[in-house]
Description:
Elements: H1 9-29, H2 37-54, H3 59-69, H4 81-85, H5 93-102, H6 106-110, H7 113-117, H8 125-133, H9 137-143, H10 155-164, H11 167-183, H12 186-203, H13 213-223, E1 229-230, E2 233-235, H14 242-258, H15 267-279, H16 284-289, E3 294-296, H17 305-326, H18 336-339
Antiparallel strand pairs: 1-2, 2-3
Helix pairs in contact: 1-2, 8-11, 9-10, 10-11, 10-12, 10-15, 11-12, 12-14, 14-15
Amino acid sequence: xxxxxxxxxxxxxxxxxxxxxxxxxxxxxxxxxxxxxxxxxxxxxxxxxxxxxxxxxxxxxxxxxxxxxxxxxxxxxxxxxxxxxxxxxxxxxxxxxxxxxxxxxxxxxxxxxxxxxxxxxxxxxxxxxxxxxxxxxxxxxxxxxxxxxxxxxxxxxxxxxxxxxxxxxxxxxxxxxxxxxxxxxxxxxxxxxxxxxxxxxxxxxxxxxxxxxxxxxxxxxxxxxxxxxxxxxxxxxxxxxxxxxxxxxxxxxxxxxxxxxxxxxxxxxxxxxxxxxxxxxxxxxxxxxxxxxxxxxxxxxxxxxxxxxxxxxxxxxxxxxxxxxxxxxxxxxxxxxxxxxxxxxx
Length: 346
């Protein structure tokens, strides 16, 4: 189908629907050992980034531009870029280098260790350390001491990673969670998962990952969060719309920038601003609103009754926080009945 010179909204919507179906088909067939869902997502996200940088609507248009730069005619192109666009194939080294020569940084994006971490292949300590050493120095300084020994995972370290707000810090948290699950260190996994959840809230709608955010989230949910369990608790995402909360967080940050409270420009500054919102600096309502949805993993019984009551309390607090935020109230405190472990009147 020929691309219109000025595609209207209907054309773009129809094409996006077709692309989404083709990308879904690519994900279904990517089950290893030569190709994994993470490879599909990397190719799609890279292609969307490149299309944006070239200012075009289709991957074929990028291919034509590159062909013309090489002295070829538009009729000579092979349309191989159409397969990159749906994640069926990954671009080869020559194509990646060719694009990166024009738009620097695109090669690092598609070759980023995040995609290998998300292939969910067996790991060992050497592989995890190797991934971490591929990350930017600002992230490595958080993970390693001056003697290049690993720093133990703790809340302070995790909050430092959150404040980086980058693809590298996301990859770092992902690798750390995979490592903790492999080591069966449930306490560390629980702490890391919370920071990873907060990072995804920050990044799903405001980075180069937005083109694959739904598929990426399902990969994180199914392969990582669903495996985290600590003291009988786990993540409960059945009726939880993470994209709604991600949208709310980003809109709040922008609103605070509009009124002059925030002034940061760039991913790190924006990450720090969103972290302040989630930490309750501007009201505990947002702390309750953006807290991760956790609850009991075992069936309800006398043994697990307290855990279920605490989960129900947590959900009441989230519902209350949403109402308060919708009314523009961020510094109120929950009423006593919301805190009760039982809704039964005393």
